[in-house]
Every structure is written in structure tokens, then in C-alpha cells.
Amino acid sequence: MQTKTLFSQHYLQNRLVDHEEWKEDARPTFEAVRALWEYAREHGDTWNESQTEQEFIQPMLELLDWSYLVQPKAHQAGRVKRPDYALFADQTSKVEAMPYQGDDDAFYSRTPAIAEAKYWGRPLSQQDQAGRESWDAQNNPSHQMVSYLVGTRVSWGILTNGRTWRLYSREVSSTASEYYEINLGLIFGFLSDGGAPSKEQLDQFRRWWLFFRQRSFDKDAQGRCFVERVHEGSDIYARRISDTLKKLVYEEVMPEIAGGFVAYRYQEDGIEEETEASLRRIYRASLSLLYKMLFLLYGEARALLPVDNPSYREQSLTKLAQWAAERIDKGLTISDATHATARYDSSGRWHSKIPDGHSLSL
Questions:
Q1: Which residue from 100, 306, 311, 345 lies 20 to 30 Å from 58 (Cα-Cα)?
Q2: Model confidence over 238-248: pLDDT tens digits?
């Protein structure tokens, strides 16, 4: 699973299970989707876009309880393109909307979501030769979805190539880079024919099922649907985490880092008492070191650095943090030394200098 800011990863991991919907039995749908997946795994690479839709996407939408209209007529036909599917809660809603084709406001106001399908396995994001995101909506499915959401004014959009499914929201900023993504290949790709899924595989499937099925877009008594409640809860949770981290940084982390400088200077350089000037330098050096580590952690968390590469991951700051957390959880000390750990050499040498030439190694 990959999440690009649409929902807080921490919320999905720690709070999603508190929703009543999480308790629902996903196993019957799991088995039906697995049968479709086995068929697609055998034939999908030979399908074009139309065949992918007919053989896999449309049956999947039906398993997710969507009623849909394929390629609805657009306003100014031939000039304004519209998504492959308008999705409806049921057949009655679909029939009621059909006479309004061509009147975008009237038609799409009746659709809780739209969907766009691509041929089996087609990349859903496109980059130029410099590795930057391409903004050409015709060649970049992600940006194509953005244009559809803006044009139709529908709140939610589903983009899929059969293997990968993405959920987009029109309400967020930088829509093209903010989506919720599930790769079905990571759920079904390692299952033997007829083999029982693990709890982890079922949980991952439930995360796909809950976010892409029709019921998750039905409004409750408060006028909100499941995906909206998760999005709102995710934002609140992220803000709480942010506030907690700010407090943690200034009340616990910064004193620890600064204390490392002081301890190093005392032990290695014989400086028994810091002056007001040296404390200011230590404070600046501590902030510098902290921001460097946060920069790396952010890059690794967003996969901006090659954390999936085993060689990099073994040397990554994330791996080092996990090692330290595991020792703390077990009640073990990280190190008996004042300024180094047993992972010092293997984790790469970090040095943060203060202006008078003294340095602290991590």
C-alpha cells in the first residue's frame, strides 16, 4: 500500500480499525476478486484498454456494488472529454441521471464518484526525462483524473489499470500527487491457487474493499460518507501528531541532542563548564543536526530516497531508528558511551560541527 498524503498513514494504521466498517466480513468479496485476479494474471498482459475494461474492470465494479454508465455523453461533444465511467449508488439513480447526459451540472451532481480505466498494468503516473512529473493530461493518467474531477465537479475519482487502484479527491490541494493507492498484486500475487490468505493479506484486501466499494460513498445521517469521515479523521489525527511531535522535539529531543554536544565536549575536550556563547552555538548546531535528520526521515518516508533498495535501507536512518526503538521497547540501552553507539560505523558517520571547531559524532 502506498499513500500520498490523501490519508494519514498513521491514521490508517492505528485508527481505521476503530471504524465499524472494519468489522464487516470481506471474505466473500475476497474470494470473488481472487477468481477474477487469477484470470487476469493469466491473460491481462495480452489485453488492450477496452479488453481490460470488459474482462476485469467492469466485473470488479460490479463486485464493489457500483452501477455505472460507460462514457457518458459530454457537453460540447468532440471537444470536452469526460471519464470512462460515471458511478452510481444503484440502478435507479443511474436511470434517473441518464436523461441529463450533456448537461454536466445536472448529470454529475447525481454521481458520487467517477472512474477512469487504463490497459492492464499501464503506469498511472508519467515522468519526463528529468524524472519530473509530466503535466500532460493526455499522457499522464494521474493528471487526466485531475482534469476530470475539476471538469465534472465530482468529489471522488477512481483511477485503475486493473492491478493498481487509486482514489482521488477533488477537495484536496495538489490533487495529482495526493491519492490513496492499493496494489492488488501485493495482495494476490503471492497466494497459491486456493490457498488460505494470511490475516495480513485479508487486512490489506479490506483496505482496498472499504475505500473502493459503493457503500463507502453513501451519506450517513450527518451527511458524510465513510471516505469523508476517514479523510476528516485523518486530518485531525495528523494535526494532533504534528502538535505532539513539536512538543516532543523541543521538550525531549532537543535537550538530548544538546546534551550529547555538552557530554562530548566534557569527555573529549575537557570543557567542564559551557559559556552563554557556547550554549548558543550548541543550540544552533543541535537544530542543524535535527533538521538534517528530519529531512532524511521525510525523504525516506515519502520514498523520495531509495528505501526499497536493500543496500540503501540497511544504511538508512529509518532502519537505525527502528533498531533504536526495538532496543528501547525491550528495556535495553542504546549505548553506554556518551556520543556513539554500536551502529556508529555501520550507519555512516554523521558529524555536526559547532562554530568553534568542536564536533559531535553520531
A1: 100
A2: 666 666 777 78
How many Cα atoms are found within 13 Å in the side-chain-facing hemisphere of 289? 26
20 and 101 inside one domain: yes
- Answer yes or no: is 85 within a domain: yes
Report whether 37 contacts 194 (CB < 8 A): no
Q: In whole angstroms, what is the distance from residue 111 CA to residue 217 CA?
A: 10
Residue 92 binned pLDDT confidence (cut-offs 50, 70, 90): very high
For residue 136, give the C-alpha cell.
500532460
CB-facing half-sphere around the CA of 233: CA atoms within 13 A: 18
DSSP assignment letter at 251 = I
CA nearest neighbour of 317 among 333, 305, 326: 305
Query: How confident is the model over 223-236, as pLDDT tens digits?
Result: 899 999 998 887 77
Closest among 259, 260, 256, 167 to 216, alpha carbons compared: 167
DSSP symbols for 75-130: SSTTTS---SEEEESSHHHHHHHGGGTT-HHHHHTT-SEEEEE-STT--SS-B-TT
| Residue numbers of the domain that contains 256 | 237-361
Q: Are residues 73 and 8 in the same domain?
A: yes
Residue 232 domain flag: no
**For helices 317-329 and 276-301, angle between their N-to-C axes, nearest 10 degrees:** 100
d(CA 334, CA 122): 46
Contact indicator for 8, 231 with CB cutoff of 8 Å = no
